[in-house]
Amino acid sequence: MRDWRLIELAKKMRREQTEPELRLWFQLRAERFHGIKFRRQKVIGRYIADVSARDPMVVVEVDGDTHGFQEDYDRARTVFFEEQGYRVIRFANLDVMTNMEGVLEQLALFVGRAPLPTLSPEGERAI
């Protein structure tokens, strides 16, 4: 049975997302990113994942400055998520705010859905 306090906390976190979380969410929501259905502030066991998907099983964490002081906690979360079958990738707030294209490229590689290379307009036989 779920802990209703955790569910209520997740709802509050959805309403009060940080700017980097919101920016990333707008890129991932509504299956915009490679057709993957992401959920935000998803309760997984005793933790709340910033963003997660079931197919593929991935958790995306957006870490702010305070995460430098809670490395043990973050490591425990990662271990727990991995025990549940998820792969975890973390991005710093600064990267999300200043290099969204790079973040999305890394995420695409991580989930195994890297973009195809851009072909030459002249075709493969161009000299």
From TrEMBL:
It comes from Sphingopyxis soli. SUPFAM superfamilies: Restriction endonuclease-like. InterPro entries: DUF559 (IPR007569), Endonuclease_DUF559_bact (IPR047216), Restrct_endonuc-II-like (IPR011335). Signal peptide: none annotated. The keyword DNA repair does not apply. Keywords: Endonuclease, Hydrolase, Nuclease. Pfam families: DUF559 (PF04480). Transmembrane segments: none annotated. Residues 7-108 form the DUF559 domain. One of its GO terms (molecular function) is endonuclease activity. This is Endonuclease domain-containing protein. Coiled coil: none annotated. It comes from the Bacteria.
